[in-house]
Amino acid sequence: MLYLVTGGCRSGKSGIAEEKVCTLAPSGKRIYFAAMQPRDDEDLERIRKHRERRKDSGFITIEGGLEALVPERFEGFKEHVVLLESLTSLLDREMFEEGESDCAVKIFDAIKLVEACVKAIVIVSDRLFSDALNFDEGTLHYREELGKLERLIAEGCEEVTEAVNGKEIKHKNDSFDMSEGKYFVTGGAAQGKTEYIKNVFGLDDADIFNLRNNTDIRNLQECSAVIHVEEYVRQCLNEGREPEDFFSDIRIVAGDDIFCGIVPLEKKDRIFRDTCGDFYRKLVNGRKLIRVTCGIGERI
Q: Which of 17, 141, 200, 248 registers the highest number of CB atoms within 10 A of its CB?
Protein backbone atom coordinates (compact mmCIF):
# COMPACT_ATOMS: atom_id res chain seq x y z
CA MET A 1 0.00 0.00 0.00
CA LEU A 2 1.16 3.51 -0.83
CA TYR A 3 0.22 6.75 0.93
CA LEU A 4 1.23 10.17 -0.40
CA VAL A 5 1.59 13.20 1.88
CA THR A 6 2.39 16.46 0.15
CA GLY A 7 2.42 20.12 1.10
CA GLY A 8 4.32 23.37 1.01
CA CYS A 9 7.38 24.33 3.05
CA ARG A 10 6.78 24.09 6.83
CA SER A 11 3.24 22.83 6.24
CA GLY A 12 3.55 20.03 8.79
CA LYS A 13 3.71 17.25 6.20
CA SER A 14 6.58 15.37 7.88
CA GLY A 15 4.77 15.27 11.21
CA ILE A 16 1.55 14.10 9.55
CA ALA A 17 3.46 11.38 7.68
CA GLU A 18 5.17 10.19 10.87
CA GLU A 19 1.82 9.99 12.68
CA LYS A 20 0.42 7.98 9.78
CA VAL A 21 3.32 5.53 9.96
CA CYS A 22 2.85 5.11 13.70
CA THR A 23 -0.87 4.43 13.15
CA LEU A 24 -0.18 1.87 10.44
CA ALA A 25 2.57 0.20 12.50
CA PRO A 26 1.41 0.45 16.14
CA SER A 27 3.79 -2.29 17.27
CA GLY A 28 6.82 -0.21 16.28
CA LYS A 29 7.87 -1.90 13.02
CA ARG A 30 8.89 1.30 11.28
CA ILE A 31 11.58 2.24 8.78
CA TYR A 32 12.71 5.77 7.95
CA PHE A 33 14.19 6.07 4.46
CA ALA A 34 16.18 9.33 4.42
CA ALA A 35 16.84 10.46 0.84
CA MET A 36 18.09 13.96 1.59
CA GLN A 37 21.72 14.69 0.73
CA PRO A 38 22.81 17.51 3.11
CA ARG A 39 24.70 20.34 1.41
CA ASP A 40 25.16 22.89 4.19
CA ASP A 41 24.67 23.59 7.89
CA GLU A 42 21.02 24.48 7.34
CA ASP A 43 20.35 21.03 5.88
CA LEU A 44 22.19 19.39 8.78
CA GLU A 45 20.10 21.35 11.29
CA ARG A 46 16.90 20.26 9.53
CA ILE A 47 18.03 16.62 9.71
CA ARG A 48 18.88 17.02 13.42
CA LYS A 49 15.37 18.32 14.16
CA HIS A 50 13.76 15.43 12.30
CA ARG A 51 15.89 12.90 14.18
CA GLU A 52 15.03 14.52 17.49
CA ARG A 53 11.31 14.37 16.73
CA ARG A 54 11.31 10.66 15.91
CA LYS A 55 13.98 9.47 18.36
CA ASP A 56 11.46 7.63 20.58
CA SER A 57 9.30 6.30 17.72
CA GLY A 58 11.29 3.13 17.04
CA PHE A 59 12.36 3.87 13.47
CA ILE A 60 15.09 1.88 11.73
CA THR A 61 16.91 4.37 9.49
CA ILE A 62 18.12 3.70 5.95
CA GLU A 63 19.94 6.55 4.22
CA GLY A 64 20.65 6.95 0.52
CA GLY A 65 19.28 7.51 -2.93
CA LEU A 66 17.83 5.15 -5.47
CA GLU A 67 20.77 2.76 -5.04
CA ALA A 68 19.49 2.06 -1.51
CA LEU A 69 15.81 1.83 -2.48
CA VAL A 70 16.04 -1.79 -3.58
CA PRO A 71 14.23 -4.95 -2.39
CA GLU A 72 17.44 -6.42 -0.97
CA ARG A 73 17.61 -3.68 1.67
CA PHE A 74 14.07 -4.51 2.86
CA GLU A 75 14.26 -8.29 3.17
CA GLY A 76 12.65 -9.49 6.39
CA PHE A 77 10.58 -6.32 6.78
CA LYS A 78 7.24 -7.64 5.51
CA GLU A 79 5.37 -6.25 8.54
CA HIS A 80 7.18 -2.91 8.56
CA VAL A 81 5.88 0.46 7.36
CA VAL A 82 8.35 2.70 5.50
CA LEU A 83 8.41 6.48 5.70
CA LEU A 84 10.12 7.75 2.53
CA GLU A 85 11.31 11.32 2.98
CA SER A 86 11.27 12.79 0.55
CA LEU A 87 10.26 12.27 -3.06
CA THR A 88 11.74 15.65 -3.94
CA SER A 89 15.11 14.73 -2.42
CA LEU A 90 15.12 11.37 -4.19
CA LEU A 91 14.41 13.05 -7.52
CA ASP A 92 17.03 15.72 -6.79
CA ARG A 93 19.71 13.07 -6.27
CA GLU A 94 18.84 11.24 -9.46
CA MET A 95 18.57 14.29 -11.71
CA PHE A 96 21.36 16.50 -10.42
CA GLU A 97 23.85 14.05 -8.92
CA GLU A 98 23.40 10.98 -11.10
CA GLY A 99 22.60 12.99 -14.24
CA GLU A 100 19.37 11.13 -15.06
CA SER A 101 17.08 13.67 -16.72
CA ASP A 102 13.97 11.49 -17.23
CA CYS A 103 13.76 9.39 -14.10
CA ALA A 104 10.18 9.66 -12.76
CA VAL A 105 9.22 6.22 -14.07
CA LYS A 106 12.50 4.73 -12.84
CA ILE A 107 11.88 6.04 -9.30
CA PHE A 108 8.25 4.90 -9.36
CA ASP A 109 9.27 1.39 -10.46
CA ALA A 110 11.78 1.22 -7.58
CA ILE A 111 9.09 2.27 -5.08
CA LYS A 112 6.73 -0.39 -6.41
CA LEU A 113 9.38 -3.10 -6.01
CA VAL A 114 9.97 -2.10 -2.39
CA GLU A 115 6.20 -1.87 -1.78
CA ALA A 116 5.97 -5.61 -2.41
CA CYS A 117 8.50 -6.22 0.39
CA VAL A 118 6.82 -4.20 3.18
CA LYS A 119 3.42 -3.57 4.71
CA ALA A 120 3.09 0.01 3.40
CA ILE A 121 5.08 3.05 2.27
CA VAL A 122 4.18 6.58 3.34
CA ILE A 123 5.78 9.03 0.89
CA VAL A 124 6.46 12.69 1.62
CA SER A 125 6.65 15.20 -1.23
CA ASP A 126 6.65 18.97 -1.72
CA ARG A 127 4.22 21.28 -3.52
CA LEU A 128 6.39 23.18 -6.01
CA PHE A 129 3.86 23.86 -8.73
CA SER A 130 2.19 27.25 -8.24
CA ASP A 131 4.79 29.93 -9.03
CA ALA A 132 4.55 32.82 -11.47
CA LEU A 133 8.33 32.95 -11.83
CA ASN A 134 10.23 32.22 -15.05
CA PHE A 135 12.47 29.29 -14.15
CA ASP A 136 15.42 27.96 -16.12
CA GLU A 137 14.91 24.89 -18.31
CA GLY A 138 16.47 22.50 -15.77
CA THR A 139 14.19 23.65 -12.95
CA LEU A 140 11.11 23.43 -15.18
CA HIS A 141 12.04 19.89 -16.18
CA TYR A 142 12.60 18.93 -12.54
CA ARG A 143 9.13 20.25 -11.69
CA GLU A 144 7.58 18.33 -14.60
CA GLU A 145 9.27 15.09 -13.47
CA LEU A 146 8.13 15.62 -9.87
CA GLY A 147 4.56 16.21 -10.99
CA LYS A 148 4.67 13.11 -13.18
CA LEU A 149 6.06 11.06 -10.29
CA GLU A 150 3.38 12.28 -7.87
CA ARG A 151 0.64 11.45 -10.40
CA LEU A 152 2.01 7.93 -10.93
CA ILE A 153 1.97 7.34 -7.18
CA ALA A 154 -1.43 8.96 -6.62
CA GLU A 155 -3.09 6.84 -9.32
CA GLY A 156 -2.78 3.66 -7.25
CA CYS A 157 -2.56 5.25 -3.81
CA GLU A 158 -4.62 4.31 -0.79
CA GLU A 159 -4.72 7.96 0.22
CA VAL A 160 -3.45 11.33 -1.01
CA THR A 161 -3.12 13.92 1.75
CA GLU A 162 -2.16 17.58 1.46
CA ALA A 163 -0.76 19.25 4.58
CA VAL A 164 -1.84 22.84 5.18
CA ASN A 165 -0.61 24.49 8.41
CA GLY A 166 -0.53 21.12 10.14
CA LYS A 167 -4.04 20.17 9.01
CA GLU A 168 -4.90 17.43 6.53
CA ILE A 169 -6.85 17.71 3.28
CA LYS A 170 -7.77 14.35 1.75
CA HIS A 171 -7.85 14.45 -2.03
CA LYS A 172 -10.13 12.14 -4.01
CA ASN A 173 -11.76 12.37 -7.41
CA ASP A 174 -15.22 13.91 -7.25
CA SER A 175 -17.91 12.22 -9.28
CA PHE A 176 -20.60 14.53 -10.65
CA ASP A 177 -22.60 14.91 -13.83
CA MET A 178 -20.40 16.49 -16.51
CA SER A 179 -22.79 15.89 -19.39
CA GLU A 180 -23.65 19.58 -19.57
CA GLY A 181 -22.42 22.95 -18.38
CA LYS A 182 -19.16 24.84 -18.74
CA TYR A 183 -16.01 24.34 -16.67
CA PHE A 184 -12.86 26.11 -15.57
CA VAL A 185 -10.09 23.66 -14.68
CA THR A 186 -7.11 24.84 -12.66
CA GLY A 187 -4.25 23.48 -10.58
CA GLY A 188 -0.50 23.87 -10.31
CA ALA A 189 1.94 23.06 -13.09
CA ALA A 190 2.45 19.38 -13.93
CA GLN A 191 -0.66 18.28 -12.03
CA GLY A 192 -2.23 16.40 -14.95
CA LYS A 193 -4.93 18.90 -15.94
CA THR A 194 -4.78 18.05 -19.64
CA GLU A 195 -5.01 14.30 -19.07
CA TYR A 196 -7.82 14.88 -16.60
CA ILE A 197 -9.77 16.88 -19.22
CA LYS A 198 -9.19 14.17 -21.83
CA ASN A 199 -10.26 11.33 -19.56
CA VAL A 200 -13.24 12.94 -17.88
CA PHE A 201 -14.71 14.74 -20.89
CA GLY A 202 -13.76 12.14 -23.51
CA LEU A 203 -11.57 14.47 -25.59
CA ASP A 204 -8.41 13.91 -27.59
CA ASP A 205 -5.63 16.24 -28.72
CA ALA A 206 -7.59 17.42 -31.75
CA ASP A 207 -10.36 18.74 -29.49
CA ILE A 208 -8.00 20.82 -27.34
CA PHE A 209 -6.48 24.21 -28.22
CA ASN A 210 -3.15 24.60 -26.42
CA LEU A 211 -2.31 28.27 -25.94
CA ARG A 212 1.21 27.35 -24.87
CA ASN A 213 1.90 26.22 -28.44
CA ASN A 214 -0.32 28.67 -30.33
CA THR A 215 -1.79 31.94 -29.07
CA ASP A 216 -3.65 32.71 -32.32
CA ILE A 217 -7.20 32.48 -30.99
CA ARG A 218 -8.99 32.96 -34.32
CA ASN A 219 -9.69 29.21 -34.61
CA LEU A 220 -11.15 28.72 -31.12
CA GLN A 221 -14.57 27.78 -32.51
CA GLU A 222 -13.16 24.47 -33.73
CA CYS A 223 -12.25 23.19 -30.24
CA SER A 224 -14.03 21.90 -27.14
CA ALA A 225 -11.35 22.94 -24.64
CA VAL A 226 -8.68 25.61 -24.29
CA ILE A 227 -5.69 25.02 -22.01
CA HIS A 228 -2.90 27.24 -20.67
CA VAL A 229 -5.01 30.39 -20.77
CA GLU A 230 -2.26 32.04 -18.69
CA GLU A 231 -0.17 32.14 -21.89
CA TYR A 232 -2.87 34.21 -23.58
CA VAL A 233 -2.66 36.66 -20.66
CA ARG A 234 1.13 36.78 -21.02
CA GLN A 235 0.84 37.55 -24.73
CA CYS A 236 -1.68 40.34 -24.09
CA LEU A 237 0.62 41.98 -21.55
CA ASN A 238 3.60 41.68 -23.91
CA GLU A 239 1.53 43.50 -26.54
CA GLY A 240 0.43 46.20 -24.08
CA ARG A 241 -3.28 45.28 -23.95
CA GLU A 242 -5.71 43.86 -21.44
CA PRO A 243 -6.94 40.26 -21.90
CA GLU A 244 -10.50 39.86 -23.15
CA ASP A 245 -12.81 36.91 -22.68
CA PHE A 246 -12.95 35.30 -26.11
CA PHE A 247 -13.70 31.94 -24.50
CA SER A 248 -17.38 32.28 -23.61
CA ASP A 249 -18.44 29.71 -26.22
CA ILE A 250 -15.76 27.18 -25.18
CA ARG A 251 -17.05 24.49 -22.84
CA ILE A 252 -13.79 23.85 -20.97
CA VAL A 253 -11.12 26.45 -20.18
CA ALA A 254 -8.01 25.60 -18.17
CA GLY A 255 -5.26 27.71 -16.63
CA ASP A 256 -2.29 27.07 -14.35
CA ASP A 257 -2.50 28.10 -10.70
CA ILE A 258 0.48 30.49 -10.44
CA PHE A 259 -0.57 32.25 -7.25
CA CYS A 260 0.95 30.39 -4.28
CA GLY A 261 4.70 30.74 -4.81
CA ILE A 262 7.21 33.41 -3.88
CA VAL A 263 6.27 36.98 -4.82
CA PRO A 264 8.21 37.64 -8.06
CA LEU A 265 11.02 40.18 -7.84
CA GLU A 266 10.44 41.44 -11.39
CA LYS A 267 7.57 43.91 -11.72
CA LYS A 268 6.45 42.39 -15.04
CA ASP A 269 6.11 38.97 -13.36
CA ARG A 270 4.04 40.48 -10.53
CA ILE A 271 1.78 42.20 -13.07
CA PHE A 272 1.42 38.91 -14.96
CA ARG A 273 0.42 37.05 -11.80
CA ASP A 274 -2.05 39.72 -10.70
CA THR A 275 -3.62 40.03 -14.15
CA CYS A 276 -4.05 36.25 -14.38
CA GLY A 277 -5.83 36.25 -11.02
CA ASP A 278 -8.23 38.99 -12.10
CA PHE A 279 -8.86 37.35 -15.49
CA TYR A 280 -9.42 33.88 -14.00
CA ARG A 281 -12.14 35.26 -11.72
CA LYS A 282 -13.93 36.65 -14.77
CA LEU A 283 -13.62 33.34 -16.62
CA VAL A 284 -15.03 31.37 -13.69
CA ASN A 285 -18.30 33.34 -13.74
CA GLY A 286 -20.98 30.99 -15.10
CA ARG A 287 -18.62 28.01 -14.99
CA LYS A 288 -18.14 25.11 -12.61
CA LEU A 289 -14.68 25.17 -11.03
CA ILE A 290 -12.46 22.08 -10.83
CA ARG A 291 -9.07 21.96 -9.14
CA VAL A 292 -6.65 19.18 -10.13
CA THR A 293 -4.05 17.96 -7.64
CA CYS A 294 -1.79 14.97 -8.45
CA GLY A 295 -4.19 14.08 -11.28
CA ILE A 296 -7.19 14.13 -8.89
CA GLY A 297 -10.02 16.46 -9.87
CA GLU A 298 -12.22 18.06 -7.20
CA ARG A 299 -15.18 20.38 -7.57
CA ILE A 300 -14.76 23.66 -5.70
A: 17
User: In which domain, by residue range, is 103 found?
Assistant: 2-170
147 pLDDT above the threshold of 90: yes
| Res. 284: pLDDT tops 90 | yes
Assign 184 a pLDDT band (cuts: 50, 70, 90). very high
Cα–Cα distance between 296 and 49 in angstroms, integer? 33
Q: Where does the pLDDT of residue 278 fall: very low under 50, low under 70, confident under 90, or very high at 90 and above?
A: very high
Q: Give whole-number Cα distances, 246 to 241, 275, 288, in Å.
A: 14, 16, 18
CA 83 – CA 166 distance, rounded (Å)? 18
Long-range pairs for 95-104 at CB < 8 Å and ≥24 separation? 95/141, 95/142, 95/145, 96/142, 97/37, 97/65, 98/65, 98/66, 101/141, 102/145, 103/66, 103/145, 104/145, 104/146, 104/148, 104/149, 104/152
Tell me what the pLDDT averaged over the chain comes to. 89
Task: Return the CA Rg of the chain.
Answer: 21
176 inside domain: no
Domain boundary, last residue among 123, 147, 170: 170
CATH number at residue 217: 3.40.50.300
Work out how many domains the chain is built from and give that number: 2
Calculate mean pLDDT across residues 31-54. Answer: 74
Residues 134 and 272 in one domain: no
